């Protein structure tokens, strides 16, 4: 599988940054409203805390005029290394890619790192650079939100 990585420096607490994504993803609509319109629990998931098997659907605008909804499942959570692995189960992204797995990690170097691993359905399909750009913007917005005292 091919991969793309986006990594941004953090100026906020790395523990709070990880906690935001692990436990408070519902706040993305407030922090990144231009990108994330809605996020919801699905398929019997009844807690916002990410554990293996948790399923959510997120409604995003990856580029102007384009809206997508993506259903994903938590595949792994490693609290000691501040890492969560998500697998896309449904969405327009799977019209281009056979597999789409996203790993979120808060590194010891105080960076937020997203790694997208993907396998194209057709070799002529574009790489998922629109999503790496999107995740970089999300990182920056959440970093600013936490740094200026946003509730986590």
UniProtKB/TrEMBL annotation:
It comes from the Eukaryota. Residues 1-149 form the Bet v I/Major latex protein domain. This is Bet v I/Major latex protein domain-containing protein. GO terms for biological process: defense response. Belongs to the MLP family. InterPro entries: Bet_v_I/MLP (IPR000916), MLP-like (IPR052006), START-like_dom_sf (IPR023393). Pfam families: Bet_v_1.
């Amino acid at each position: 599988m091919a991969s793309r990585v986006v990594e941004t420096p953090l100026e906020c607490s790395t523990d709070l940054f990880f906690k935001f994504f692990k436990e408070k993803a519902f706040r993305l609509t407030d922090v990144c409203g231009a990108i994330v319109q809605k996020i919801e629990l699905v398929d019997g998931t009844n807690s916002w805390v990410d554990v293996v098997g948790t399923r959510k659907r997120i409604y995003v605008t990856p580029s102007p005029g384009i809206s997508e909804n993506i259903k994903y499942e938590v595949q792994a959570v490693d609290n000691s290394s501040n890492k969560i692995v998500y697998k896309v189960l449904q969405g327009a992204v799977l019209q281009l890619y056979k597999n789409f797995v996203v790993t979120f990690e808060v590194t010891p170097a105080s960076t937020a790192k997203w790694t997208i691993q993907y396998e194209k359905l057709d070799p002529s399909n574009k790489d998922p650079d629109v999503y790496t750009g999107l995740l970089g913007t999300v990182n920056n917005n959440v970093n600013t939100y936490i740094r200026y005292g946003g509730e986590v």
